[in-house]
Amino acid sequence: MRTASKTRTRKTRTSKKKSRRPPSMTMRGPRTTRLLPQRSPMTRLKGAAEPLAAAYDQALLDLDGVVYLLHEPIPEAAATVAALPGLACAPVFVTNNASRSPETVAEALRGMDIQAKASQVLTSAQVVASGICQHIGEDGTVLVTGSAALRAAVEDEGMEITDDPKAADAVAFGYTPTTTWRDLADVTIAVRNGAFWATANLDATLPTPDGPLPGMGALVGAVATALGRGPDMVAGKPELPIYQAALERKRGGRAIMVGDRPDSDIEGANRVGIDSLLVFTGVASPRFALSLPPEQRPTHLGWSLAALTETHTAPQWDTSGEAVLCGGWAVALEKGAMVLSGSGDSLDGWRALCEFSWALNDESKSERQFELRPIGPAAEKLLE
Q1: Taking the C-alpha atoms of 87, 247, 257 and 117 in order, what is their torsion angle to the nearest 10 degrees?
Q2: How many Å apart are CA 128 and CA 157, to the nearest integer?
Q3: Are residues 163 and 230 in the same domain?
């Protein structure tokens, strides 16, 4: 029996020496259960061996949080936008804001040294107007509640504007800070009398120096409460119309959406079926991205808009299906915690963590944040 015991011990040690698993992936404690037995889980995040934008004909760029932040340009934005034509990728500046015309948006961007033409801007006001025209035709009459830019967009489609809610074939509803109870009442009357109701977006709040304040979604909610139903059409992200309008500008091409809001920019991209780049210059952080639900997960991660001009490492599952490798990093599960080890580019570490966390959440059908446990100084620094 002692001989057999020694033999077993010797075999165990030999097995450990021959293991091809890198030290950074070695499990300690109880053996973990594979996430998906018999095969490695599907990788969500994609790689790019060449500058990312070179794989696409169009880059749909959100504005606040991506190109600028509270009217201050993101440092890398101007150089990145200028580089896109050289990569055969056309920028389209996409905004839910219906209060500014394309000309005004382009002028503001040029004031930040960002190359932009009005023809490269797509606003939710333009999408509202075109959607209404498709529904009621150029001979229809429209009640406009919103900015001068929204009125101009409706007029550009050739439709007549009316102030009589009972004479309106459609309602174009956009945000202005001067909206009154009478305005909301007129929208309600028009829609109750059969008018087609299109609104710029459903953004619940607006960012201001005083913190989030009621936005378009709050105004829509007031009217919807009176009517007992919502709008017939919502133009802005994450709804489909604004993406479809952008894709119409280059039919048959490939587009990527770049945004900082997973619940708006990224979710809309997933709905319409295009790739997306989540950047961390706005509201989202890498740690926040770990618990994103499937519909809000991007295909690429980047520190900023400059990621369009960079290559991207694709995370890969090891052959056991128990660990994710990306660059010089490895992530595995140990005693209920996600263990990060290795070193290298910090974004590669977050790519590995996101890939692993998403798989765990899919397996457990949850959106929880797992404990993160670093091994080694590089991992400790990344998770500070």
Answers
A1: 60
A2: 10
A3: yes
Question: Into how many domains does the chain fold?
Answer: 3
CATH classification at residue 323: 3.30.300.290
Is there a single domain that holds both residue 226 and residue 252? no
| Residue 26 lies inside a defined structural domain of this protein | no
12 in a domain, yes or no?
A: no
Active site residues: 62, 64
- CA–CA separation, 121 vs 102, rounded Å? 5
94-123 in b/e burial notation, b at 16+ Cβ within 10 A? bbbbbbbbbebbbebbeeeebebeeebbbb
The residue range of the domain holding 250 is 52-96+238-309
pLDDT in tens, the chain (384 residues): 444 444 444 444 444 444 344 333 333 333 444 444 333 455 689 999 999 999 999 999 999 999 999 889 999 999 999 999 999 999 999 999 999 999 999 999 999 999 999 999 999 999 999 999 999 999 999 999 999 999 999 999 999 999 999 999 999 999 999 999 999 999 999 999 999 999 999 998 887 778 888 999 999 999 999 999 999 999 999 999 999 999 999 988 899 999 999 999 999 999 999 999 999 999 999 999 999 999 999 999 999 999 999 999 999 999 888 999 999 999 999 998 999 999 999 999 999 999 999 999 988 877 777 899 999 999 999 999
Q: Which of 293, 309, 325 is the last residue of a domain?
A: 309
Write down the pTM of the prediction.
Answer: 0.86
Residue 56 lies in a domain: yes
